[in-house]
Amino acid sequence: MERRDLLRSGLALAGASLLPQLTRSAAASAAREPGQFPPGFLWGAATAAYQVEGAYNEDGKGESVWDRFVLAPGKIKNGDTGNVACDSYHRYGDDIALLRTLNLKSYRFSIAWTRIQPSGTGPANARGLDYYDRLTDALLEAGIRPLPTLYHWDLPQELEDRGGWPNRDTAARFADYASIMGRRLGDRIEHWALFNESKAFTQLSYWFGVFAPGRKDALAFLKATHTVNLAHGLGFRALKTANSKLQVGSVYDVSPHIPASDSAADRAAAEAMDKLSNLWFVVPVLTGSYPEGVLPAASQAALLGMQSGDEQTMRADLDFVGLNYYSLTRVAASTQNSGVPGLDVTADWAVGPDEKTDFGWDIYPQGFYDILKRMQQVTGKRPIEITENGAAYNNKPDATGQIHDAKRIAYLRAHLLSLSRAIADGVPVRAYHCWSLLDNFEWAQGYSQRFGLTYVDFDNHQRRTIKESGYWYAKVAAANRVV
Ligand code: IFM
């Protein structure tokens, strides 16, 4: 049997037979102890290409919007870049060894589009494909399920130069890229996520201008949201055409939206922002239409650049849904013009009375339970994977080199208890991925915010040291319950 056939048959055992069983057991979860997870629950960790890979210009990789953005003065704390990051491009073997030490069975990573199509169009770059081929094979050999995300924010710069996500043609380009990946890795990777956090990157990149490419243009933002929804439908079908057995989902960042006060204006603002943030991507993809009550009905189609047939194009009957949860969002009506017609609001993760992480985000584990129950009303019986959850704490090694991060353990413990309650109450969650396996490049914050279960010494050859939280999480994964 050839090595690839061997891996493929391994996948049939590791993925295809395991996960349906998880879905069944999650549904039949009734009488479990608090903090106990269903048999077969999948424990994992997550990273993303630009945040960990480095090797920004190696092996034919093209320039992405983040490669360009980090060079602009004042955009990234301390002038940091992802040029080297955790050097996972060369050290993916070390990362897989870490996953094994942590008893994890699922690795969520992302694929850098610019390694595959350096300019975002045209033929595939063989050396880029080879990298993800090696990573995939090494994960499968280690008994770890690969869960790639096709788009974690690193748009090819040439596509941005042609208009970026506000240009609806970008949806078709994304589908071409998805097709290349499905054809190359679909024989070994069963589960695929299309996008990471469509809400975060469209808002931050095109509306607020703090993420690459740094545009502050509310109308461009609205168009970007629609192109991304079209790309979901097209990308979904591209993967299914490449291999009809693929299980295709997407990852949504969700958060309960709480009015900052009981005033009617704040309550209306919270309701509208909830729809724009929690529902604006998943609802159109599942139903073909946008939530009402955000944009003025008469101008919505024009604002989004909708064309006849788009309702069908963006629809995709996702096989699973990925949810990321970090904090709650407090929303207030604002007198400032946001640029989005009918939506003058402020929304923040760091203004409540709750204890904060080092990033300043409110710690609110109950919100994890609440938002899972709420999203289940939209996603129905579809299996859910928690694709990210975690906290930034910036503990440094002590004199003996150990990293004591008790606050991260407390954060994870409280959130896992909430999650186990949601599962016991019928939310069909089959997997949890901690953000992140490694301290990494935290976008506009550079390396100043550490989310890792593993400490990375960026001044010392990216040396990795598992933190106390990592060893604790390894015990949770082995016991399948909160310890
Ligand atoms: O680091 C990010 C990740 O890229 C997307 N989700 C939130 C994380 C923490 O900010």
What does the oligomeric state look like here? single chain
Q: Under the CATH scheme, which architecture would be assigned?
A: Alpha-Beta Barrel
Q: What's the overall geometry?
A: globular
Number of separate domains: 1
The set of bound ligands, ions and cofactors reads:
5-hydroxymethyl-3,4-dihydroxypiperidine
User: Low-confidence stretches at least 5 residues in length (pLDDT < 50)?
Assistant: 1-18, 20-29
Outline the biggest β-sheet. Answer: 8 strands, parallel, barrel
Radius of gyration: 21 Å
Q: Level of helix content?
A: 40-55%
DSSP strand tally: 13
Distance from first to last alpha carbon = 42 Å
Strand neighbour order, sheet with most strands: 1-2-3-4-5-7-10-11
Q: Briefly, what CATH class?
A: Alpha Beta
Overall pLDDT: 94
Secondary structure tally, helices: 18
How large is the share of residues in beta strands?
5-15%
Class by SSE composition: alpha/beta
What is the CATH T-level topology?
A: TIM Barrel
Would you identify the CATH H-level superfamily?
Answer: Glycosidases
Compact description:
By secondary structure, the protein is of the alpha/beta class. It has helices at 3-16, 18-27, 49-52, 65-69, 88-101, 113-116, 126-141, 157-161, 169-185, 198-207, 218-242, 264-279, 282-287, 300-304, 310-314, 365-379, 406-424, 468-479; strands spanning 42-46, 106-110, 145-151, 191-196, 247-253, 257-259, 320-324, 329-333, 345-348, 384-388, 429-435, 454-457, 463-466. It starts with a helix and ends with a helix.
